[in-house]
Known about the structure:
- By secondary structure, the chain is α/β, with parallel strands linked by helices.
- It has two domains: 7-115, 3-Layer(aba) Sandwich (Rossmann fold); 126-367, Alpha-Beta Complex (Spore Coat Polysaccharide Biosynthesis Protein SpsA, Chain A).
- 38% of the residues lie in helices and 18% in strands.
- It contains eleven helices and twelve strands.
- It has helices at 17-23, 51-64, 104-115, 139-155, 173-187, 209-218, 235-247, 266-279, 299-305, 317-328, 349-367; strands spanning 7-12, 28-31, 43-47, 70-75, 94-99, 126-132, 160-166, 197-201, 223-227, 252-256, 294-298, 332-336.
- The strands form two sheets. The chain has a seven-stranded mixed beta sheet with strand order 8-7-6-9-11-10-12, sandwiched between helices. A five-stranded parallel beta sheet has the order 2-1-3-4-5, with helices on both faces.
- Helix 10 packs parallel to helix 11.
- It is globular, with a radius of gyration of 22 Å.
- GO terms for molecular function: transferase activity.
- It comes from Peptoclostridium litorale DSM 5388.
Amino acid sequence: MNPLKKNILVFSNTDRSRVYFRYLNLYNVEFYSEGMDISGFGMAVIDFGSKGEAIAGANTIRSQKSNMPLLVVWDFEKKLPLNLFKNMEGYGVVNIHHYSENSIERLIDDVEATLHPQYPQRKNEMAIVIPVYNEKARMIHVKNFLEKTYSLVQEEFINACIYFVNDGSSDGTEKLIDDMVEEKISQSAYVFKKLILSSKSLGRNTKKAGTYIEAIKSINSDVILFVDADDSFSTSDISRLLNIVNEGYYDMAIGTKDETAKGRPLLRRGISSAKRALTAPLLPRGVYDSQTGLKAVSGNAARYIYPYLNEDSGLAIDLEILYVAKKLGLRVAQVPVDCEDRDGSHINLVRDSMQFLKSMLKIYVRNRRI
């Protein structure tokens, strides 16, 4: 082994050996075998397909070196057992890495954080996710909102990126968004232009749920903020939610607009009040509004929540996120925000409200035993 490199032990029964050898090439990587001397290793990667195997693997390592720092690698798509740590022996650091094909950079960061917890890691990264669907008629609002959000990223949150996620639009929105993104990128003075602003299309309409799920799956940021595209929210409220979650105490911060929304019809106010009453038992303490289109979640909390989310939740995906957050014991702050309702909403109040009720029942049934 190269004496100038740190030694990392990998204990695994998965097929990711090539990942460790290829991307952890700044370290001496060895796979554990029974009877080997592990005293010279700085940390161990534990990568198994089940909770029992992961605990057994961790305890095998800790039985020989009780303070060995561990990085437990867990498949992004799998639900992480909340009691994973309870039966682990020893007293060293244990970190979790939620593995996906998009998480290699974070894997390297997590290895460094496990090996060198005394050193500061990279500055927290943020993602501003803007779902869009058939926005052609309201594109002026989308352009105005991008201008404001882009300025916010350039001037204040320089470690943030903006992502448009197209929810299967059929009116030419995809091309309009792509052209707008390319134009903005071409005007940018940033060296890494593609990292600041990008767009992605789902190729199908999911009533918003798919945009949230895809964003959580594909974006490796420490804070992920979801916001409607129609310029109905202010950058000051966006900043407020980003800062609340980035500070670290709250896992989520969600905006509520029901008391401040401008231009909202009386019928819509009434339906919103009814929804609040019906969803109250599913929401975290202190939260009464699940449907406002502005919310921020920490990257770690998003990775815990992700395996419980379902595309068929549609417009109730916000409720599913909050109900799972409640069941997982996450800390959620509700923040009053200013909002101006725009014309051209794709919501059919009666039809979509009925579908929301059906989705709410599904969400309760499939997540009540978490």
